[in-house]
């Protein structure tokens, strides 16, 4: 999974986690900023996340804002971790807002041998 796919998965997970709605229909998307995001908004969020993940400092953050839509967000690394199988990991905090709706989620992600970031689903992480 490349970083772009990871960030799209994170974005969708943010929608699912922040909505609290059932998967019975897609109406729950209206309760999340991502429902309103344009491709340009998604690109800005993805670029911010990539910059934070690739930065050497373990507690970096990056804000983004699209002046055309007025939507914005912040991506923050909550530090370095190590998975039980030896991968370098981080916890990534995403905050987004659009049309007065805000969402915030934290995702554990690990860097593969190929250099791609993946969701660390089911992995036990230890703070480095």
Automatic annotation (TrEMBL):
Where does the signal peptide begin and end?
Answer: 1-23
What positions does the domain Surface antigen occupy? 36-121
Q: What is this protein called?
A: Surface antigen
Which keywords does this chain's UniProt record carry?
Answer: Signal
Superkingdom of the source species: Bacteria
Upper taxonomic lineage: Bacteria, Pseudomonadati, Pseudomonadota, Gammaproteobacteria, Steroidobacterales
Pfam assignment, any one: 17kDa_Anti_2
